[in-house]
Design goal:
Layout (H helix, E strand, L loop, with lengths): L21 H14 L10 H12 L6 E8 L4 E9 L3 H7 L6 E6 L2 E2 L5 E2 L2 E6 L6 H18 L4 E4 L8 H9 L2
Parallel strand pairs: 6-7
Antiparallel strand pairs: 1-2, 1-3, 3-6, 4-5
Length: 176
């Protein structure tokens, strides 16, 4: 950690008009250092993290999803809904038309060589009709949610249920 030991003030023959109070600088640096890891706009509570972890590690042989919303009043995330044994199109119809969601999706993917896998995909459900304040919170928390959910691929859906179908998901998962 840096320390500052002197007070700098302009001298009579100095043309610069500045002053540095080292105690103020030290306070600002320590404040920044203490808060640099906690600058998240929206919190992800432990129960949501546990639900995401449980979802990730559950073995399933069908399409499933977990939807997470932002609770504006508390600036935290909450599990909104869980989907089991539903098609992607059915899940899309269940999602709200005017509120953003993060949707973690497990989907059966058939590879060209005949293999079958169940990769995870994060669907950034951000309908264009959603309130701007919610969209701003949602956009600012996307990378953080993606890190916590440990998902590499993100599918952006802005045009509602029409933009989320099996083909769009397969195309995203098969893309390099």
């Amino acid at each position: 950690m840096m320390t500052f030991t002197e007070r700098v003030s302009p001298s009579d023959d100095d043309n610069n008009n500045y002053s540095v109070d080292t105690s103020t600088l030290e306070s600002l640096i320590s404040l920044f250092s203490a808060n640099k890891m906690s600058t998240r706009t929206v919190d992800i509570p432990q129960d949501v993290i546990a639900a995401l972890k449980k979802f990730r590690f559950t073995n399933r042989k069908s399409t499933a999803a977990i939807s997470v919303k932002i609770v504006k009043a508390s600036l935290s995330m909450a599990v909104d809904e869980e989907f089991e044994d539903q098609s992607i199109e059915e899940i899309a119809e269940e999602l709200p038309e005017n509120h953003p969601r993060y949707v973690l999706l497990s989907h059966e993917l058939k590879h060209k060589d005949g293999r079958i896998s169940y990769p995870l995909l994060l669907i950034n459900w951000a309908p264009s009709g959603a309130p701007m304040e919610l969209m701003t919170l949602h956009a600012s928390s996307l990378n953080y949610f993606q890190q916590v959910a440990e998902v590499a691929k993100v599918l952006e859906v802005r045009d509602g249920a029409e933009g989320l179908d099996t083909k769009a998901v397969d195309d995203k998962l098969l893309a390099n």
